[in-house]
Amino acid sequence: MRLSNIARYSAFVALASVITPVWSASEADAPQNPLKEAYFGETHVHTGVSMDAFIAGNRLTPDDAYRFAKGEEIMVNGSLHRIKRPLDFAAVTDHSEFLGESYSLMNEGVAGYDDDVAVAFREAPDLETALGLYNKYVLAPLAGGGDPHPEFFQGIEAIKSTWKQNYEATQKHYEPGKFTTIHAYEWTSAPGGSNQHRNILFRDTNLPDIPFSSSDGSDPEQLWAWMQTHRDDGKKVFAIPHNSNESKGLLFAEASLTGVPIGKEYAETRASMEPLIEMMQVKGNSEVVPNFWPNDEFADFENAVSIQRFSGRGYVKENFVRYGLGRGIKYNAEIGVNPFKYGFVGGTDNHNGTPSNVEEDNYKVGSHGYADQTAAVRATSMLEGEMLIADANPGALTGVWATSNTRGAIWDAMLAKETFATSGPRMKVRAFAGQGFAGSYDSYETLVIDGYANGVPMGSDYTGEEAPQILVWALKDPIGPNLDRIQIIKGWYENGEMKDKVYNAVASGDRLKADGSVEPIDAPINLSTGEFNTEKGDPELMGVWTDPDFDPAQQAYYYVRVLQLPTARWTLYDELREGVKYPDEVKREIVERAWGSPIWHEVN
Amino acid sequence: MTGNAWKAIVREPLLHFLLVGGLVFGAYSWVTPEAQVETDSEVILIDQAELDHLKTLWKAQWRRDPNTEDVAAIIDRYLRQEVFYREALRMNLDHNDQIVKKRLAQKMEAVANDLSTLMQPPTDERLRAYFHEREAFFTLPQAYAFKQLLFAPDTSEEQLKQTLASLRANAEVAASLNSSSLPFEWELDSETAIENAFGGGFSKALASLPVGEWAGPVRSGLGWHLVYLEQNQPEHLPSFESVRDFVARQYEYYAVLEAQEQVFDELIGKYEVRFSAEDVPDAILNEFPQS
């Protein structure tokens, strides 16, 4: 952001705060869908209230972020911007670290506002300056221990004030039945460069006075202990870890961060506190990478491999979600509890205050302030200390199967893991594991009724003795291409080894062969326009898959992956629209996808 | 958080400058009443109005009343700042200081913007004018309300025709024929929103359908549809009264942006900009012709 724009931003902020609240309906009046509807939303976004985002030029508030989520046009990172489709829900997750500083930075006239360091933050004119300040006042103090606060920090009351302002914006924009806001924040701990970050989501307005930060405790066990005291106090809260790809193998580890081998108590606590994991975001897809999963032909997707060049974050197999799910099964065999029983969500980690700004053909203002503001910058730059910009993506999306668009229903469905993540598009996916499903149904409604009647939904336990039938259904994004196929990924533990296998469950056309392989679909994009193929594939897929290798004595997980036909990546749109040129090895075409939360076979 | 192990040391001269010039800069405050500085320079007067003002600022931040100790601290801080501030002014430390310049420019910009906003409050009259100046913006888009049934893309034309015929003969059965996950009834919504929910050019095709009877088939990104158009509301300019709040909101949002440019344009008109430097880009020279 240019300096001359700063006044504009503060004007925006000031004006946004006087707009009157719209609370159109009560929760009780919100339309109910007993068979559940897929609601799409954001679980991970930063506004100017996050000090790193502020230094990088972001002056948007949670109020602005929610307005953006509702489809309004907002001045973002130097230009007016909006998403094509409003979201159903959003959680603003500003960093709890430096929340107090944010009060002095963002509220003109309060103590600390005119402090020279605060002024330097506010006036950082370019990326280089911002990076210098960020390094000095954010990273170094957090890494060095001791008091991390700059001098202008005004103490605990300032933290309370910011937390209250975020609370007020989150309350103001909640419209039950139409748009749900969730009280949330991010706990940002990275001991030794291992990303241990968690987003903390609350069910309702019963909230702590201030959030727990990594300055209060950098070990997840300390976070969970804090969460437990609030649960004991009647609050409802869970945590969602993210960027396991940047965890240096420590998110799905053999021991706690303090070096204690993982035991029953740790495993129970973690499973209770963390129902979900963020599968993908701006800084990469954490499902799998090809070098550790060479037999997964679709593993090469937004792997953000340049992360490995920075901060000693070389990829190890233990960084990835599929490994974590398997290690969880192994822990279950070893200690009787699965600590990694994760359902899936997708987020952005966007630092521009723009929730779910995930459209590849609309990725005009980037996601990290100065660092990726224009195509010219994106084509040549890196996200300092993290990765190449060309290697980043606009971020992922969360789908939640809930009975209504209300806080309670959405949060409960997330706790129950009846969720899916997509790499951005609004495709829908459902799966049920059980017995006695039909090969086809007269209607979608009868399919869903039968799914619940004869099976358990995504995120649940299957406890039958016989090989589970898995009823799968997927619908394309109406404005995206058709679907290629639905896959089921099974993982189990056998003879001391974690194993997993990708099965093709349903394919469009008649491409699924008797041996389980699928005739590849030849539907390339048009590289000179970015258009996708509109002829091939199917808009809707459904089928019943039965595990051919079932062992009733073996714990296992099953999760669904839906692949759509290829589409253009944001890098191609940058080239076509802005005339920039990315290096040849950068992808222009991708296969976007959805991941349904696992169903676990639990042996009784 | 972005980044984790940045090795780069701060090389930015601005920051070094700040550390030296910080005192001068810190002395500036939005709240310093100008009068005090200009009167007796050997007297620092804290009158009731001033103290109340300081207490109000304090209260705005901490959300409680300051106790005696707090008030002592407020006054102590104020005196320290005031003394250094006055000494700095005496030594002309404010002159040609980039930070002070920038801050004053910002204050002036804010003042000018406030003035401009004050001079153009969103009265009904002004909003009405704004509304008519931007009729294209406030025009409501083409919108439809309808019922629909979705059929797979490979459904034969014959089958669709038969279904259409039976719907026209017996409309009551329509809802029960909905076998897809898409809702049967769609309330009045804009062409764009409908296109985003159906894809494949669906909403454009609605334009040619009759109102009040089953028709189609119409192609979407999902398959074939038979559609019962309930309402076809053409693009139109709503009455000002019906959208006044929305107009007011837009006025506040965008008028501020425009006002800022206007203020700058007006102020720079008071000056003659001369360049004696040589490497000034042509674009700038064209903007400020040299006499």
UniProtKB/TrEMBL annotation, chain A:
Residues 1-24 form the signal peptide. Keywords: Signal. Pfam families: DUF3604. InterPro entries: DUF3604. This is Uncharacterized protein DUF3604. The lineage of its organism: Bacteria, Pseudomonadati, Pseudomonadota, Gammaproteobacteria, Oceanospirillales.
From TrEMBL, chain B:
It is an enzyme of class 5 (isomerase). It comes from Marinobacterium mangrovicola. GO terms for molecular function: peptidyl-prolyl cis-trans isomerase activity. The keyword Lipid metabolism does not apply. PROSITE patterns: PPIC_PPIASE_2. Belongs to the PpiC/parvulin rotamase family. PANTHER family: FOLDASE PROTEIN PRSA (PTHR47245:SF1), PEPTIDYLPROLYL ISOMERASE (PTHR47245). InterPro entries: PPIase_dom_sf, PPIase_PpiC, PrsA_foldase. It comes from the Bacteria. Gene3D superfamilies: 3.10.50.40. Keywords: Isomerase, Rotamase, Signal. Its EC number is 5.2.1.8. It catalyses: [protein]-peptidylproline (omega=180) = [protein]-peptidylproline (omega=0). This is peptidylprolyl isomerase. Residues 141-231 form the PpiC domain.
